[in-house]
Each structure stands twice: as structure tokens, then as C-alpha cells.
Amino acid sequence: MPPFSSANGLGNVLNLKLRSPVPSMERHYDVAIIGGGIIGTALLYTLSRYTNVKRILLVEKENGVAQVTSSSRNNSQTLHVGDIETNYTPEKINTVKQASSMLTSYVEKVAGPRKTRIMSRCSKMLIGVGEEETEFLEKRYSEKFMETFPDLVKVDRKDIARLEPNVVKGRNKDESLTGVYSKSGHMVAFDQLAKSFVDEAIKRPSCKIDVLFGNTVGHIDGKNSEYYIYTGEKFYTANSIAVCAGSHSLRFAKSLGYGKDLSILAVAGNFYSTPKVVNSKVYTVQKGNIPFLGVHADPDINRHGRSRFGPTITLYPYLEKEDPSTFIDYLKSVSIDAHLIGSLWKISKNKELMDTFSRNISYTMPGGIARFVKYEVQKIIPSLSPKSVIQDRTARGIRAQPIDKKRRQIVVGEVELKKDGSVFNISPSPGASSCLKTATENAEYLCDYLGMRFDKDLMNKELGNKRTY
Length: 469
Ligand SMILES: Cc1cc2nc3c(=O)[nH]c(=O)nc-3n(C[C@H](O)[C@H](O)[C@H](O)COP(=O)(O)OP(=O)(O)OC[C@H]3O[C@@H](n4cnc5c(N)ncnc54)[C@H](O)[C@@H]3O)c2cc1C
Prior knowledge:
Blueprint: E1 4-5, E2 28-34, H1 38-50, E3 55-59, H2 90-109, H3 115-118, E4 119-121, E5 124-129, H4 130-140, H5 143-148, E6 152-155, H6 157-163, H7 165-168, E7 177-182, E8 186-188, H8 190-201, E9 208-212, E10 219-223, E11 226-231, E12 234-243, H9 249-255, E13 262-268, E14 271-275, E15 281-284, E16 296-299, E17 306-310, E18 314-316, H10 327-334, H11 338-347, H12 351-362, H13 368-380, E19 390-392, E20 398-404, E21 409-410, E22 415-419, E23 422-426, H14 435-450, H15 456-463
Helix pairs in contact: 1-8, 1-14, 2-14, 9-10
The structure holds flavin-adenine dinucleotide (FAD).
Flavin-adenine dinucleotide is lined by residues 34-40, 59-62, 66-70, 75-78, 80, 216-217, 244-246, 248, 269, 311, 397-399, 425, 427-433.
């Protein structure tokens, strides 16, 4: 069967069968993208739309795009802009705000009639419970902060009762409760967005795009200024590669001799479904040096009339949750050595992080749902009982949390390794919200390496990126 290709206009899951192991120009590409999650598909779109790259290959092991972490079953479906995420630094807020505006511009200007399936308005609230959190919010949400987000307003118990009655119902009257609220949040089906990126990309007649589903890249070799991408017994060649394989990316980087100072923690997130108890996304305070947001309550983009609580923060020995076959690749990614042990030792001194990990591990043990409801759910919705809470066992998202082994610390934010015409992306949360920014940075680097053109003006015009390039 021919590949899913812009040249033949087919729009389905198809595999390329090679008759000969010898690569010809037919199987040679300017850029090969490994991984069809939100990052790989955003890059495919960006290269096809804003560059003069002529031949692009995208290889994905699943039978469609965004089936792993970018699937809306597996992440929190939130467009992060930095207003209610209490563990973001001012620098991170700036970056995320700008990056997410590229995504909203894409959906508004490019996605066409599909846009309502990709993104919908969803108000959001951050609550501080108890005196310590109330004080924390008071300090964080200064006048200057509120100016950065003009739609954000402070809310007190009375406002919260009006906007989110279940947050107040059944709560101890003496417990202080405060928060901030914005009516202009968004929830995003990142899998629908990924589909839209591919559909928009293959519309470009000037660019030959082959998308291979159901093809697992076993390994990649670099020789004679070319990359050889092996899927089983077949192989493809490319002048440059972009590895957008989520938690698997670091393994590929290491096999090519890059990223030696990096390791990852595979942090899974469980979600729980309940009857509808919230109107908005309701977030809680995450303090301290913890790169993961605390459990929050959300309307579920896939299941109207239900609410969703999560994600939990559980360490896993696999690159994909519930997939023990990824254990060996996980070992290759973490590369155990004295630096890693030193890093883990230092990280284990972060008491808040360790407490969070151990509390979250207890949710996976017998009686875990009752504990989850007591410590996480009832902090948001005091009247919700364990009987109404069901764990979604199909959720399989992993945050690949990078560790800098030299500095012995967790790296907050995305990691992009770029060398010799290859890019490797590791994108923990909020990587999906920042996908177009990451794609732009990848595309600029690849064009520079290939001697091709990146049309910044057109990109700025369409995606409204205010960055001064
Ligand atoms: C619990 C949780 C909640 C989150 N919530 C949010 C949120 O609300 N908002 C937000 O912005 N971000 C959120 N994130 C982060 C966001 O989901 C990720 O940053 C993003 O999905 C990463 O996209 P990706 O394309 O890098 O990875 P993935 O979506 O995992 O895609 C990688 C792809 O590579 C493929 N692949 C891997 N190995 C191979 C191989 N050998 N050969 C071929 N293909 C391969 C995989 O099948 C997969 O399709 C959350 C993450 C988690 C885990």
C-alpha cells in the first residue's frame, strides 16, 4: 500500500511496504520526524507551512496520531497560560503565555470548522484552602501579577459559592477559602489538534509528506551526513531528524551519543471520573519546588456531564504506563551511574516532593481511592464521597521529567537537544500548550542546518507570535 501521503491525498492509516532494502530518492527525506504526538505533528505542520522543506517523513508506532501522552484521555486538556499555575516562575509564565497564544491563533485562524472540536472556552479557578494557602495567594496575586492577566479576578468565599457551589457546600465554615477566577480559559483536545496539524500539512502541494502509522522505529544511525531510520527490516534515510517520541526521545538521543548528562523520571498520572461537580477547571495551590501541578477538577472534554480529577504523580519504571515492554528502554534512557545516584539523592532531600510522591503512591495501593478522595478530592469538593469516584484505568500518560545529572536537579520545562541536524524533544507539562513554539524552534534549527528558508513573517502573521526573532 502507498503511504498516507500528500502526493496521493489519502487520509487514512496506511503502511509503506518497501520491496528493496536499498533506499532510493523515493525513501529519502529532508526531515524525518519520529513520533506523531502533539510535538511531532506541530512540527510537520510548521515545516510544511512556513519553510521550503520539500520532503518530510513522519513515523508513528501507533495506528494514528496522539495516542499516547497527547491523547485527551491521558492529559488534563488544559491550555496553560501561566495565570493559575502557582509553581511557575515569572520567566516560565512569560514563555508559556506567549507559546499558548500561538496555539489559540492557530485554532482561530487556521483550523477552520474543526475548531470547536479542538478547543472550547472553559472558565478556571484557583482556590487557596486554609490560612497558609490564603496568605500564599495574597502574596502571589499582587497588582502587578493581575495586570499581566486582565481577565483574572480575585474571588472570596461568597463569589466561589456563586460560581462553584460544590466547592463551598459542606466545607467547614472556619476554614479560610479564597481564590482567583478567569472566565477566559480554554480546554483543548490535543489529539484533535494533532489531527488538524496533519490534515493542514498534507494540503500543501509543494511538499511531499509521507506519514507512516503502525511503524516502530527500532534505532537510528547517523553515517555519511545522513540518518538511517530503521523500522523492523525496513529503513528510510533523511538529511535531518526530529525525534518527537515523548518519553522515548532521550533513549534515541543517547544511542546517537547525545544527552549524556540527562536522565528522566517517568511520572505517570492517574485520572478519576465523577458526576459533574464543577463548572470550571478548579486548580489547587502547588507550592515549593515541585514541577508538577497538584490535582485539579475539570469538566471532561470527552464526557459531557462528568467531571475529572487528577492527575496523580506516580513514579513508574516504564516509558509508557501499563507497558512493561518499555522497561529496558527506560533503563537505556536513565543510564544509571554515580551522577544519577547523586542526583536522585539530592532530589530526595526535597521534602515537599518526597511527601507528594509517597502520598501519591498510597493512592495506588488497596484503599487508594478512599485516600485520594480524602486528601485530594475533598479539598476541592468536600461533599464528594469515594462511592462517586471511579478511576479511569485507560489513562496512560507519562510525563518524562528530565533530570540534569551534572547539576543534580530536575529540569523544569521542555528540553530540546539539537546537534548535527538532529533534534530531540522531551516535553513534560505544559508541553502540549507550547507545541507550536517548540515546533518553531525545531523548524528554525533544521532550516538553518539544511540551508533552507523559514518564513518568520508568515508565521508571525498567522500565529501572532509577538517574539522578536
Ligand atoms: C498526566 C498529564 C497531564 C498533562 N496535562 C497537560 C495539560 O493539561 N496541558 C498541557 O499543555 N500539557 C499537559 N501535559 C503534557 C503534555 O501532554 C505533553 O507535554 C505532550 O503530550 C507531549 O507530546 P509529545 O508529542 O512529546 O509526546 P507523545 O504524545 O507521547 O507523543 C510521542 C509519540 O511518539 C511515538 N513514538 C514513541 N516511540 C516511537 C518509536 N520508537 N517509533 C515510532 N513512534 C514512536 C509515540 O507512539 C507517540 O505517539 C500533561 C502530561 C501528563 C502526563
